[in-house]
Write a structure and sequence with these properties.
This protein is α/β, with parallel strands linked by helices. Helices cover 36% and strands 13% of the residues. The longest helix has 20 residues.
Length: 326
Amino acid sequence: MMDSLRGQNLLDLGELSRSALIEVLDTAESFVEVNRRVVKKVPALKGRVVASLFFEESTRTRLSFETAAKRLSADVLSLAVASSSVKKGESLKDTIATIEALGIDAVVMRHRSSGAAVQVARFVPHVRVINAGDGLHQHPTQGLLDAFTLRSVLAERRGERGRDTGAELFAGLRVLIVGDIRHSRVARSDVDAYVGLGATVSLAAPGTLLPEGVEEWPVDVVDDFDESLARADVIGVLRLQHERGTGAFVPSLSEFTATHGLTAARVARLSPETIIMHPGPMNRGVEIDASVADSPASVITRQVANGVPVRMAVLYLSVAGGEGAW
């Protein structure tokens, strides 16, 4: 387990110790201030080249990473997969070899196959690899930004700055994750982040949307979603992933909403202190009501905004080793 991300790849949040998680969150807090400036740019990665390789469609993650790299003054090389040699059958190894020949310092990669980022790290051991989502495996920076958002909200409620609070804000915190957990790499990374920081995590989903081997996760699986809502301090909602075949795992969308949707009626019974999260994109009216997504309890827009400083922190620590002026 890594005690620091400095000079290391970010492939799996389960590889980071509590101190390493806090290191990233504290560094991200510093970059929040940078993003409030009129000139939102620092020279931390000046002269470095970051390759953005997205073999799966993405909007939030790709734009967030590319914005983060540019605000650190890195040169960004973005691969348009739709018009690349990948469409002609080029292997991942050959694609990486081609990109490497251009003199890159880091690869930010999303891929449909679990373990793809690990493979790339083996292909180019001298290049830092940041996993932006691989199959059903992991989405490390989403887990980090969710934890960062949650820590910031909790710190504000306690009148603290959100920095140098360590993991004590998570001690005793009860997080309930609900939705399509079977197909969710976000669920896996969120569990690693929250449990790693000291929270207690429960999962709620129809049996068909629970992953195989979930009994080995450091979580509780609840049978009664409505009953478990009353005990949750934080509710993390996950979307039904139609592109991964979710429709074959539920009788109908309306039935899923009736049993596991975060509806306005359910939220009306919650404590006003309950925090509602969603990594996006949302299926409004399915896993979450539109009124709930836009309610004061929701921190969904904050999650999106926090993507840039968190990814700046990851790139700064991983690629620059946490050194250099900024």
